[in-house]
Amino acid sequence: MNRRYSRSVWKALNEAGSVHDQPWDAAKAPLKAGTALADPKAVFAKLDLKDIAALAGPTAAAPAPGEPKAAGPKASAHAHAPAPAAGAKPAAATPPAAAPADGKVTIDEFARIHLRLAVVKSVEAHPKADKLYVLKLDAGELGERQVVAGLKAHYKPEELVGKTVAFVANLQPAMLRGVESQGMVLAGDDGATVAVLEPRRPLPPGAKIR
After folding, report:
1. Does the pTM of the predicted model rise above 0.90?
2. What's the pLDDT band for 72 if we cut at 50, 70, 90?
3. Which end of the chain has a smaller Cβ tally under 10 Å, C or N?
């Protein structure tokens, strides 16, 4: 701590002498009961946001994920930009595109989700959760997938085995109560009944849902 600040705190505690003459062990000693404290005074000055910005100096915007970092002044997009003509107004910055407020997604965002069909090969009760099943799926060219699904209250194991179901194939794997889930089985829910989504016509495991 700065010497000036430590002196201010020492005076506020109404201690005698100089704080700098005290041994380190004195910091562990409790204050005496009934000690009157001095009138409180601000020890640190409040900084305004403008002052903080001035201390930080100019900063460059961080590159977006996946974009290469600038290698130095030569890599700057403004390194060789011509100076604006005298009296010319600077061009207005283009505001970033705002995310839709209604929750809609673009066709490109939807295309990132890989929906596939898979055949349920086995269904086991989750060892640590009463409402969960652990399903083994045959996803065709994608191989076998293990998926944890909250279907125990709606299906018996024999009702699921052999079904062709729809699932999200590129969902980030997650540990659910100690068991890894490698996707998500899709189901409809009206608040009372839950039903897994199945194709109306026969399709092989691994078939894409478009």
Report:
1. no
2. very low
3. C
